Known about the structure:
The protein is of the alpha/beta class. Helix content is 44%, strand content 13%. The protein starts with a helix and ends in an 11-residue tail after the last helix. 38% of the residues are buried.
Amino acid sequence: xxxxxxxxxxxxxxxxxxxxxxxxRPEFQRRVRTVLxxxxxxxxxxxxELALGVSANxxxxxxxxxxxxRYERRFRQQFSRVVVTTTExxxxxxxxxxxxxFAAPNADPDWVQVVPNGIxxxxxxxxxxxxxxxxxxxxxAMDAPHNIDAVCFFAEAVLPxxxxxxxEVTFCxxxxxxxxxxxxxxxHPGVQVMGTVAEMGAVLREATVCVLPLRLGFGIKNKTxxxxxxGVPIVGSxxxxxxxxxxxxxxxxxxxxxxxxxxxxxxxxxxxxxxxxQVSQRARTLVETHxxxxxxxxxxxxxxxxxxxxxxxxxx
Length: 316
């Protein structure tokens, strides 16, 4: 890295996720544009897990939080630009950096830019028919803490309410590497833990409704875009729908955050094939218009190549 930057072998250095920022020296900016593609921020994740009481190691996280804060505040000295996926993420990061030591650099609105996630439309083609029935699905890597929390919350707090009205309902958990906690959910009536599947798009298309009861996480979720592209109507939380234009006279998904809200939204979709079709079609149109990787790639290219504010100071 040092030799390549010194010899000016390239014009832009991109860092995928803040965890890899340790390899980017602040002085690199003298010779190359440096861009952080911030999928998420560790400080925000850690604070959210502690607040929700779902941290796997709360004492460790409380101890490390000041170190994480210093680490992520250093991004201002390391990077010419930071890219996030939502305006909420952007504001969260700028608020985190607010203060007398950061007020001047943060005044430039272009330093943190928003470039959404995208979707492979070929891999997630839309379903051609509504399968009907009472099949719920959640898709995601089942060793990720935010996904584990989501399916446990749904199976324990929401599914009993849904089954009281629809006894035949099934909740399918599709995703690789299910941990012991997730596998144990198969003991609940109606829960199926599928593990790794050959084609996630096919699993989504077979579901009546996709539920995304995320309580953790930031940014636009790929799992949300995938379900929208596959044409399965979504009931999701604020976290799951973040950054997407969901609301309006013709919603693209139904929003829910409490068990009662989830049960009510799922019932609306179960009882109305017309509503399912409308929500599915609107969601698919949205991703086709705004969230293909081709369109997102063009936005990311501009973020990489356009002139950006460079940090005025750094510490060797």
